[in-house]
Design goal:
2 copies of one chain form a homodimer.
Chain A: E1 5-10, H1 18-28, E2 39-44, H2 47-52, H3 67-70, H4 86-98, E3 108-114, E4 120-126, H5 130-143, E5 147-150, E6 166-173, H6 182-203, E7 212-222, E8 235-236, E9 253-256, E10 262-264, E11 272-274, E12 288-297, H7 302-311
Parallel strand pairs in A: 1-2, 1-3, 3-6, 4-5, 5-7
Antiparallel strand pairs in A: 4-6, 7-12, 8-9, 9-10, 11-12
Helix pairs in contact in A: 1-6, 5-6, 5-7
Amino acid sequence: MAAPRVLVVAGTHGNEINGPWLLEQWETHPDLLDRRGLQVETVLGNPEACRLARRYVDRDLNRSFRPEWLGLVPESFSSAPRDVPLEVLRARELMAAYGSSGSLPCSLVFDLHSTTAAMGASLVVYGRRPADLTLAAALQERLGLPVYLHEGDQAQQGFLVERWPCGLVVEIGPVPQGVRSARVVEQTRLVLQAAFDVTHEAAHGLLITPSDLVVHRHLGSIDVPRDPAGRPDACIHPQLQGRDWHPLRLGDPLFLRADGEVIRHGGTEGLVPVFINEAAYAEKAIAFSFTSRERWPLDPSGPGALRALLMSDQRGEPL
Amino acid sequence: MAAPRVLVVAGTHGNEINGPWLLEQWETHPDLLDRRGLQVETVLGNPEACRLARRYVDRDLNRSFRPEWLGLVPESFSSAPRDVPLEVLRARELMAAYGSSGSLPCSLVFDLHSTTAAMGASLVVYGRRPADLTLAAALQERLGLPVYLHEGDQAQQGFLVERWPCGLVVEIGPVPQGVRSARVVEQTRLVLQAAFDVTHEAAHGLLITPSDLVVHRHLGSIDVPRDPAGRPDACIHPQLQGRDWHPLRLGDPLFLRADGEVIRHGGTEGLVPVFINEAAYAEKAIAFSFTSRERWPLDPSGPGALRALLMSDQRGEPL
């Protein structure tokens, strides 16, 4: 059988330097990761941003995979920016190389990120595709990772992994932008190894999936309080800082003003905050996002869907 | 008496956002800091870099205060860059406003910084000027702050505070670049308040100085190990990460390679590392710096020198 082709992207954001370093080291030390017979393609998402050690050059690459900008919906090109941003060009380039009609078509993508928030080692899933959720469930069972399910956010669109038949973001933190951390590199390596293991098993019909998974379903985001001029006039409260994944109770402190005033949680009991004080989200007016923790039965079609798309790489050859 | 004029600079590096936020909040909440009768001037060091949320635009502002670039040594202008970098222009502008022959001449400057290294709340002194060391000793006695004495480093020149008769850097960490932290804001506020207190006392001849101070004298810096192509091929070892100010013993782990190889300290026993894994120093090829911890008697001329320069603001009026 021809092995399924899996894409691993790092450096989608140029100031998240741990994923790129892991892939670089893997070239030098082939034993770092066992590819389990998969055809693994690795690529630097945004090389120019990596060179500059910035999140992006013109716009966030991981919000630039909008179908109407990629030529997938040709008639709507009119909505694309007039001077095409570097990141939209790069998104087209990545699709042309690794997309379903690309030169090295991949059925599965893992996109390696890091964050200044205390997310630990976690997964982000976009929407509810059965194959994505199957993969996430298997990784959650194996490693205990929390899963953030991002959906229905009109302000945040055009994520990379959505443009592949199946894909997950691996999100590790806390680590400052531009800082290489042995801990973050090792956490990334462990998740990626487990992802290869699970993919290999799925491709061979050997994957035993759990009956359910716990997701943290995105409900919304909250901005930092601002003064009338629009300038932030509070910090994340020290008792919230670092408490990603810990449910909020009524009255919990959220923000602290310079004069000592505390702004408390007055909303729903049990909301679970994520991406608390992520540096890059300040420009997106997100102090943190909040989610609902839910246990979902795994869609029975999921494992089959995952296997089918992994086999679709194999151009009709028998498994 | 006319009060001494004190300059407080924040945002010398545009991605260190806690100092600027403290000064902004102080405008809104005048009770945040008691200026103790001093004439305090506050200024954003590098407004354009702050707007872009980057350390600098053309070059590091805090390495741009070289006398030969500022017109202080006119005959050596030939060594200035041909196209003058924005930060050199800004350095001249700050000197013209707050320098000794400026429009609002200040005798003392506090430059507020933050770092991704676990430096806690600390002071950096450049060279051995008696007034600087007196101020540092008084702050160390009051708050227990460690003092890093930077000198004799040919690769690092042109620091802002060196161009004023007396000045200290306040350095607080760890905090990622671009992240506002209530803890860091409060630590900065406490050090700045103590600095105002000490300056007020010194100006009025009320300062009782300790007989000595502990400095961490800069000896050198060490780069991360690199492969033949010049790319970093190791991380700071997890057992060194966060251990700023803790003396190194022979055999202590310094770096960790991806294949598990550990590079250990083989040099002098007792060297004290600082600025471990500061994000901005990667481009300066500094993984950490190392220092010698020394207890120095305070130069008896120091308190007098400090008082004299604070009184020199007062244009001959009696104290």
